[in-house]
């Protein structure tokens, strides 16, 4: 799993091109203020141990949200951080599980439309905790 977290003063998106026909249609533009946006790439090998990666992701998101003084997180499937890709169905179920775990601990969580290219607008501050990259792999 690859994870790019960006704390945004403002994050907005507008769906443009639907790439996965089996997922719901989405037309709404959304805007969020003071939010941690998680650009997440699930890799094919991640499907072997989803609970391991779920725990790693949840811990990382909670930590970064705390560092940036927010309890609002947006999950965004971003299949551009690695050549390896997990299946779309697996990834969406994984995102739903992560959203539930975060919501159960009093985080406000949103997901961007799954299976779309989006026009995005990001306004992020220039500080060390605003942009964080993590890479997770199974230990042998």
Short note summarizing the structure:
The protein is of the alpha/beta class.
Radius of gyration: 14 Å
Tell me the structural class: alpha/beta
Number of strand segments? 6
The low-confidence parts are none
Tell me the major beta sheet. Answer: 6 strands, mixed
Principal-axes geometry comes out as globular
CATH superfamily: D-tyrosyl-tRNA(Tyr) deacylase
Percent helix, as a range, is: 10-25%
**Do you know the CATH topology?**
D-tyrosyl-trna(Tyr) Deacylase, Chain: A
Order of helices and strands: EEHEHEEE
CATH class, named Alpha Beta
β content, as a range? 35-45%
CATH A-level architecture: 3-Layer(bba) Sandwich
Domains counted in the coordinates: how many? 1
Describe the oligomeric state of these chains in a short phrase.
single chain
- The overall average pLDDT, rounded, is 94
Rounded to the nearest angstrom, the distance between the terminal CA atoms is 16 Å
- Number of helices, counting only DSSP H or I runs of 4 residues or more: 2
């Amino acid at each position: 799993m690859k994870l790019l977290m960006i704390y945004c003063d403002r994050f907005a998106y507008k769906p443009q091109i639907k790439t996965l026909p089996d997922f719901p249609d989405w037309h709404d533009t959304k805007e969020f203020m003071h939010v941690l946006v998680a650009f997440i790439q699930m890799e094919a090998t991640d499907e072997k141990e989803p609970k391991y990666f779920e725990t790693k992701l949840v811990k990382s998101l909670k930590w970064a949200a705390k560092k940036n003084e927010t309890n609002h997180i947006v999950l965004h499937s971003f299949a551009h951080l690695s050549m390896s890709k997990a299946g779309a169905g697996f990834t969406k179920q994984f995102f739903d599980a992560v959203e539930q775990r975060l919501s159960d601990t009093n985080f406000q969580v949103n997901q961007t439309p799954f299976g779309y290219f989006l026009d995005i607008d990001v306004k992020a501050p220039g500080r060390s905790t605003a942009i964080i990259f993590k890479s997770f792999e199974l230990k042998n």
